[in-house]
């Protein structure tokens, strides 16, 4: 088995101390392989967002470690962590977090601007990714003037513009009606298939989770279940269940 | 994020909330405007003093007198030698002002002091009248032109110290009374100076008018004669005096190297006082006057700085609001890998840009207002002080104002910028 692109090794995360201490994660281990799509499923307060933040190197675990391609992330300097988040990860949030009064193109190229890439190159790459998501004609529009589905596509374009190997999506369809939500899902999964991008989706939507290669159920800070989706070919041979226990 | 993008983003962000930014810029504008005007007045008055000083005397000259021993408080003992008997150079009627006349021996010993380039007795001449052709005769004071001294000229040139012809500059107030239509008409005309010696014999000298001098603060209503003319007047005035009387002087003029260090001048002065002489430079005479002006300007500037401090709090407030509003954006940028240092830079640059706008506007409008005030005042309130530009601008001082305001804005911006830089991206991106 190859080295997982991201791995959690028995991570604990607690907030506060003494009587107000709250344990968000109580020993979670998970391996995520390159090109895989993983759904982290749980109710609000289950610790699923905390797990995503730790995997995305936005936060440090209280104990345990997060490994990035086999290397312990706690040993990395702040600059390398920032660079990794900028170049290796893409983020799609439930809320769009688009900068108002700024053009779609400028919003999409924000990660490139942060990386310090020059204006002409930024424009070229931004337009290429907008083309890919059928938003090229909206490049000059103000980001706030778009519909919900268009905004989420802009957000995906922004997550994609740096050619990341991992995309973190926190409730990517939570704010969308089911029809546009379906379109956004299709885009995300086609990216996984076509470009081999690893998808880590945090959701409480069972239908969305079911489309992922793997579902990790989390409850009260612990992984309660981990299910692998059965490839379509073998599904026929197992008549009773569509999933097998991991 | 590279430096160019950082600046561009900061400028763009500061213009995002226009009303708020404009109000903050206005508060800085008021401070910078006031500071521009107060420092402009300081510069203007000091420039005026400088030109006036230059017309009083050269900057490489020490006036030397031989002061009576005055080591003790209380009444000064009578010193029979302290009165310059019948010397024409004694200060006019100065009872109780005991000044020992300088003799040729004194001049020699002063000349021997290290650092003294030359020593000349100051000749004091008082002509009876001045007159052009057969016009009206007027009483007048005549001063000697010391090389290095700069006259504030309305027309013509300064009397030539090296010339062997008699040359004189007339004060501008004498131009019309002497019968000339304007300043230029006076140039080249012959001026008659009449002087009487102790025996009562009046002699006349004729000098060419080479310049017309402005009346300065220090009342340059005197005619300015060149060296040969002064000496000729002195000779005419000293007719009938004994040699010793003629060769005793109230003051001598010592020239030194003005490019030397300040310490050289101090040494020179202490050498003079060791020998019992008192040396005073033009700087000494006018220095206290300038100190008063500087003090007043400093107080005025302090008021402007107080206004700027208030504006600084305005910047803090504006940027704190901006940080608050853009919490999500900051969180997103941090999640995408923008370091805290760059976030700090983004907000402090925004503060500096607001400071730049306010100060540039303040300085610009301040200059316009100053020039306007000059134009109005020159013909009304300050018409009696020709040559005074009340508000003058020194580019270095203006640049300093802009830089100081930008520095202040930067300092004010550090509080919100630090808050933004320390923001936790997870907290910032939390919803529900």
Using only CA atoms, what is the Rg of chain B?
32 Å
**Beta-strand residue fraction of chain B:** 5-15%
Inertia-based shape of chain A: globular
How would you write the strand order of the largest sheet of chain A? Answer: 6-7-8-3-9-10-11
Beta strand count of chain A: 11
Describe the global form of chain B.
Answer: elongated
Computed over alpha carbons, the radius of gyration of chain A is 19 Å
For the record, the count of structural domains of chain B works out to 2
Given helix and strand content, the structural type of chain B is: alpha+beta
Which structural class best describes the helix and strand composition of chain A?
Answer: alpha/beta
Helix fraction of chain A by DSSP (H/I, runs of at least 4): 25-40%
Q: Termini distance of chain B?
A: 31 Å
* Strand and helix order of chain A: EEEHEEHEHHHHEHEHEEHE
What's a quick, concise take on this entry?
With 246 residues, chain A is an alpha/beta fold. In chain A, 34% of the residues lie in helices and 27% in strands.
Salient structural properties:
heterodimer; A: 246 residues; four-stranded antiparallel β-sheet; 11 strands; B: 432 residues; alpha+beta; seven-stranded mixed β-sheet; 14% strand
In words, what does this structure look like?
The complex is a heterodimer of chains A (246) and B (432). Chain A has 246 residues and is α/β, with parallel strands linked by helices. Chain A contains nine helices and eleven strands. Chain A has helices spanning 48-55, 78-87, 104-108, 110-115, 119-132, 148-160, 178-195, 206-210, 232-235, and strands spanning 6-15, 22-32, 37-41, 63-68, 71-72, 89-92, 166-170, 198-203, 214-219, 222-229, 243-245. In chain A, strands 6-7-8-3-9-10-11 form a seven-stranded mixed sheet, sandwiched between helices. In chain A, strands 2-1-4-5 form a four-stranded antiparallel sheet, with helices on one face. Chain B is α+β, with helices and mostly antiparallel strands and 432 residues long. The longest helix of chain B is centred in the last third of the chain and has 44 residues, at 282-325. In chain B, a hairpin with a 5-residue loop joins strand 8 and strand 9 (202-213). In chain B, the strands form two sheets. In chain B, strands 4, 5, 6, 7, 8, 9 and 10 form a seven-stranded mixed sheet that branches. Chain A: One of its GO terms (molecular function) is ATP binding. Chain A: This is ABC transporter ATP-binding protein.
């Amino acid at each position: 088995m190859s080295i997982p692109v991201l791995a959690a090794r028995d991570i604990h995360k607690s907030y506060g101390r003494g009587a107000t201490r709250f344990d968000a994660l109580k020993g979670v281990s998970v391996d995520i392989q390159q090109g895989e799509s993983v759904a982290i499923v749980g109710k609000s307060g289950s610790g699923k967002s905390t797990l995503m933040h730790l995997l995305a190197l936005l936060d440090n675990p209280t104990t345990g470690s997060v490994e990035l391609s086999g290397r312990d992330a706690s040993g990395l300097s702040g600059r390398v962590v920032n660079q990794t988040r900028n170049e290796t990860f893409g983020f799609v949030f439930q809320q769009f977090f688009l900068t108002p009064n700024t053009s779609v193109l400028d919003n999409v190229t924000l990660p490139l601007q942060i990386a310090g890439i020059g204006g002409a190159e930024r424009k070229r790459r931004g337009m290429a990714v907008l083309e890919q998501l059928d938003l090229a004609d909206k490049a000059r529009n103000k980001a706030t003037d778009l519909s919900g589905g268009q905004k989420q596509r802009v957000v995906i374009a922004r997550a994609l513009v740096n050619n990341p190997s991992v995309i973190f999506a926190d409730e990517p369809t939570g704010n969308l009606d089911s029809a546009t939500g379906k379109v956004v899902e299709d885009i995300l999964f086609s990216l996984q298939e076509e470009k081999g991008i690893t998808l880590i989706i945090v959701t409480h939507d069972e239908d969305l989770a079911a489309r992922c290669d793997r579902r990790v159920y989390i409850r009260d800070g612990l992984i309660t279940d981990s299910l692998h989706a059965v490839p379509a070919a073998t599904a026929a041979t197992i008549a009773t269940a569509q999933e097998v226990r991991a | 994020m590279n430096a160019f993008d950082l600046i561009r983003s900061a400028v763009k962000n500061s213009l995002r909330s226009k009303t708020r930014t404009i109000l903050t810029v206005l508060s800085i504008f008021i401070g910078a405007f006031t500071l521009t005007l107060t420092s402009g007045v300081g510069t203007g008055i000091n420039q005026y003093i400088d030109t006036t000083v230059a017309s009083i005397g050269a900057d490489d000259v020490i006036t030397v007198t031989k002061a009576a021993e005055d080591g003790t408080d209380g009444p000064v003992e009578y010193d029979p030698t302290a009165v310059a008997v019948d010397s024409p150079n004694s200060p006019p009627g100065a009872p109780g002002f005991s000044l020992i006349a300088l003799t040729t021996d004194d001049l020699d010993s002063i000349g021997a002091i290290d650092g003294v380039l030359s020593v000349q007795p100051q000749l004091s001449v008082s002509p009876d009248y001045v007159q052009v052709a057969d016009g009206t005769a007027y009483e007048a004071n005549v001063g000697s032109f010391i090389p290095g001294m700069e006259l504030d000229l309305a027309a013509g040139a300064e009397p030539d110290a090296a010339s062997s012809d008699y040359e004189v500059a007339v004060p501008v107030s004498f131009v019309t009374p002497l019968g000339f239509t304007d300043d230029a008409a006076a140039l080249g005309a012959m001026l008659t100076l009449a002087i009487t010696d102790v025996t009562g014999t009046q002699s006349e000298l004729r000098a060419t008018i080479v310049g017309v001098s402005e009346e300065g603060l220090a009342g340059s209503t005197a005619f300015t004669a060149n060296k040969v003319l002064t000496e000729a007047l002195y000779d005419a005035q000293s007719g009938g005096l004994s040699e010793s009387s003629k060769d005793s002087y109230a003051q001598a003029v010592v020239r030194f190297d003005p490019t030397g260090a300040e310490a050289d001048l101090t040494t020179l002065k202490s050498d003079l006082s060791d020998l019992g002489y008192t040396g005073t430079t033009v700087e000494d005479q006018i220095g206290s006057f300038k100190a008063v002006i500087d003090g007043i300007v400093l107080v005025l500037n302090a008021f402007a700085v107080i206004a700027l401090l208030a504006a600084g709090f305005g910047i803090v407030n504006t940027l704190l609001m901006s940080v608050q509003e853009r919490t999500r954006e900051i969180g997103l940028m941090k999640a995408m890998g923008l370091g805290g240092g760059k976030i700090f830079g983004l907000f402090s640059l925004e503060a500096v840009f607001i400071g730049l706008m306010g100060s540039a506007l303040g300085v610009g409008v301040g200059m316009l207002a100053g020039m306007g005030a000059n134009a109005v005042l020159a013909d009304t309130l300050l018409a009696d002080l020709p040559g005074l530009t009340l508000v003058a601008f020194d580019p270095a001082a203006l640049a300093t104002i802009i830089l100081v305001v930008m520095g202040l804005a930067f300092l004010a911006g550090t509080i919100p910028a630090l808050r933004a830089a320390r923001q936790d991206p997870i907290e910032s991106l939390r919803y529900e």
